[in-house]
Amino acid sequence: MTFSRLAEATTPTAHIGLGLAAVGRPGYITLGREADLPRSRSVEALRERALELLDAAYALGVRYVDAARSYGRSEEFLADWLASRPDIDDVVVGSKWGYTYTADWRTDAAAHEVKDHSVTAYDRQRAESAALLGGRLDLYQIHSVTPQSPALTDKELHARLADLAAEGVTVGLSVSGPQQAAAIRAALDVTVGGERLFHTVQATYNALETSAGPALAEAHDAGLTVLVKEGMANGRLAGEHAPAALRAVAERTGLGCDAVALALVLRRPWAGVVLSGAATSVQLVSNLHATAVDLDAQDLERVEALAEEPAAYWSTRAALPWH
């Protein structure tokens, strides 16, 4: 199943994907996560939680799953689930390379991941992803590209990625940081043999961080599929952590702050897939209610007024603790 077939999905929940960052490793930066996961953070405990979430997501109509080499054992857990469900052939699988997981299954590691966008890193991590996901990998993305990343200018890397695309795997990138828009626009200019290299872009966009919006609209207009990550700002837009204005809108709609936050993103005409980072099945169900949220003009005004300056947003994100 090629990634482009997501565009043919007709059920609303098919445009919400499940990201495995929260359950692929014992430590992550989402607020409240310490209460969401099993008391034991063993590999088997998180494997069980990941499989439970994947079962629930599929049953509820989710058809895109997002993993990464740096998300601990996320690819391994996803591969286990796919192997146990051989009849399922309509799930689109995406993963990312460019960060190496270095925490050794600890939550107190000095460094949880190390960034490397070199050809050497690509060759190693591509082989690792292939060993786990084989022909089920539909989308392979460069992880967290910034305008300074050598991945935007390395012709040898571009040739490798073009070879991967020739094998039928969609090539994309994710971006992060206060200069997301610049990275997106630079990526649109990357070509191999006169053809655009990247066909998807994944970016952070939420009520607090909207700066990439115009560039994402440009990417969509250029034919790229846009995936949105961190729609709840790593938990800052959920539950007790949500701003008062968001809680007021949620109360009016009768749904959770998380659903309202994701609904705001789903309204953007350029948003192809919006990721849920749920760590429990209850959270996943609540996230999927985003497709039923009806925001009126006053709701939108309240929520859109929450936007922060990009530098401030990313500074706050960088300070979030690993739970």
Task: Characterize the structure shown.
This protein is an alpha/beta fold and 323 residues long. The chain is 38% helix and 15% strand. The protein has twelve helices and twelve strands. It has helices at residues 33-36, 43-59, 74-84, 119-133, 155-166, 180-188, 213-221, 244-253, 257-266, 281-288, 297-304, 310-318, and strands at 16-19, 64-66, 92-97, 99-101, 113-115, 139-145, 170-175, 191-192, 195-196, 200-204, 225-229, 273-276. The chain has an eight-stranded parallel beta barrel, surrounded by six helices. It has a two-stranded antiparallel sheet with strand order 4-5. The protein is globular and about 50 Å long. The model has no long low-confidence stretch (mean pLDDT 94).
Topology:
Layout: E1 16-19, H1 33-36, H2 43-59, E2 64-66, H3 74-84, E3 92-97, E4 99-101, E5 113-115, H4 119-133, E6 139-145, H5 155-166, E7 170-175, H6 180-188, E8 191-192, E9 195-196, E10 200-204, H7 213-221, E11 225-229, H8 244-253, H9 257-266, E12 273-276, H10 281-288, H11 297-304, H12 310-318
Parallel strand pairs: 1-2, 1-12, 2-3, 3-6, 6-7, 7-10, 10-11, 11-12
Antiparallel strand pairs: 4-5, 8-9
List how many beta strands DSSP finds. Answer: 12
Report the structural category: alpha/beta
Report the β-strand fraction as a percent range: 15-25%
Q: Which stretches of 5+ consecutive residues score pLDDT under 50?
A: none
Could you say which overall geometry the principal axes of the C-alpha atoms support?
globular
Provide the helix percentage: 25-40%
Mean pLDDT: 94
- Sequence of strands across the biggest β-sheet: 1-2-3-6-7-10-11-12
Q: How large is the radius of gyration?
A: 18 Å
Tell me the major beta sheet: 8 strands, parallel, barrel
What's the SSE pattern? Answer: EHHEHEEEHEHEHEEEHEHHEHHH
